[in-house]
Amino acid sequence: MVRLGLMGNSSKPRFVPVVSSFVLLLRERGVKFLYDDENRHSIHLNPNELAPHNSLARDCDLVLSFGGDGTLLHTAAAVSKYGKPILGVNLGPGLGYLTDLESAHLHERLDDILTGNYVIEERMMIQATTEHDPTVHHALNDFVIGQHEVSRTQAFQVFIDGAPAANYRADGLIVASPTGSTAYSLSAGGPIIEPTLQTIIVTPVCPHTLTMRPLAIADHRTVTIRSMGPGILTADGEHVRSLSIGEQVFVKKSPLTAKLVNIQRRDFYQVLRDKLNWGAAPDFSDER
Q1: Are residues 36 and 100 both part of a single domain?
Q2: Which of 37, 61, 69, 133 is the catalytic position?
Q3: Which is nearest to 238 in space by CA: 124, 90, 137?
């Protein structure tokens, strides 16, 4: 029998009513589930229905992530090492670009969830280490090398497989996966990349000259970034560590992937149109 994992952002106003209702449905149907111990104070459950955040997915067949895009990224960080699929359930009020299902349709889709009537999209992830810390960090969207002084630009040196590639002066540098190409990188002027492609994107944040453009790099290469001032490293929006002057960050394709459930079977360009209004022609119908 399928066992579901329930993870999410309990600070969302709709989290408790949506998840509580879903738990009742699962109990009525006799469906086994595990609930993220990280959210144990939000809903009263039996101790045997709880599991630690970082190992919950080990004992589940599919994990539901209740929240938005940030919640799904947080879920992927815990789930990807076990290779289990993730279904994003959007609780609003944000866009929920990565989430596949609106909470209003969750109950009616339970049979599809239990029978595996969905498509799994395997998304490339990236990993990073730093010169002074060998700890490996993984990201589904992006790593950002930023600076402490937000009111001034900073110099960054970029190397590809150890060879000098570019010198940027900018507020920061984004190193993104194809999935992350529609996130912060897109806001900073980076390209939209189909998530099935295998590539690494380097996008400067507010570069100081027009010649400093984004780069799309083959996935077998290693991107090294040297921050020429004190900086910070973040992974999918979460602080990783501070960087000393001249410290190098090494980014490459991760051996891990995120398996995202596409239960509605929408293609990439349909999601772009529906959620980002991409490719829409201007409406001149009211002009006279």
Answers
A1: yes
A2: 69
A3: 137
